[in-house]
Amino acid sequence: MNEIKIEEIEGFSFGQAESPDGLTGCTVVLSKQGAIAGVDVRGGSPGTRETDLLHSDNLVQQIHGVFLSGGSAFGLDVGSGVMRFLEEKEIGFDVDITRVPIVPGAILFDLVGRPTMRRPDAEMGYQAAERAYLHTSIEQGNFGAGAGASVGKALGRHHSMKGGIGSYACQIGGIKVGALIAVNCFGDVIDPKSGKVVAGLHKGGNFLNSEQQLIEQMKTTSTNRFSQNTTIGVVVTNARVDKPQANKLASLSHDGFARTIRPSHTFVDGDTLFFMGHKDGGACDLNSLGTLATICVEKAIINAVRHASSTPGFIAARDLHKKGEKE
Known about the structure:
By secondary structure, this protein is α+β, with helices and mostly antiparallel strands. It has one domain: L-amino peptidase D-ALA esterase/amidase (4-Layer Sandwich). It has 7 helices and 19 strands. A hairpin with a 2-residue loop joins strand 11 and strand 12. The termini are far apart.
């Protein structure tokens, strides 16, 4: 298994945009020729657009892009900007009088202490789509949909840390697989190799273990935890898949969430994962493809928090670890 850049996977292009204050943004994945896609929504508080059309029994067989956005439900407006850009390029589902771009997407909650902040909108979506069309490189950490992301929120924002967006891709033979994940989870991010917390719930520079805190709070605490959460992402491959297979592969890829985020798929997360492949790509064993996709999701999540930089109110993993070393 050779590590590659996700931009090396043919048939896909990537673009990101952030607000002027750098505290929210969106990420767009385009497929100019159309991609076979599926989705699996596992979280209890999802915010999504056009995921129903990805069900295996529905008509549309190909999509032309996926967007990931901050801004909570306001961020769904990003999809309109992506559609407008693609229509101008005559990319979309042919309905005789025009081409309708098919652009599903998902949002995460990053409206933390800034109710009047700029939210990702159609113009930001258009900008990210334009950058994707020009085949720009993906930046990890505080970019795109990961700009305002944070992790580890069982005790509120003052004990949470900076999240972000991360990518990882690999190649075996002619098959390439990659994941792009915006990490904004309620739980902790765990390195599955070492079992150690990389970023999450902390106090005084020490990690507190979100799962244990939830268990201890069970009999004594009643809280409204609906804020700041949701991890969203997309897996892309040049392998050949059909629509039912893409949906199953999206489901299998969620194992990467469960291995690195504890707890994951909670009532207050909207965890959503898209899978995009090709109808004319290379053939491969689907179980092997699902395994590679899961590994890519794991590594993309770890990359997201390791590349993140501290912002006001949220310390990043790299800075917390440095602080611990000094102490």
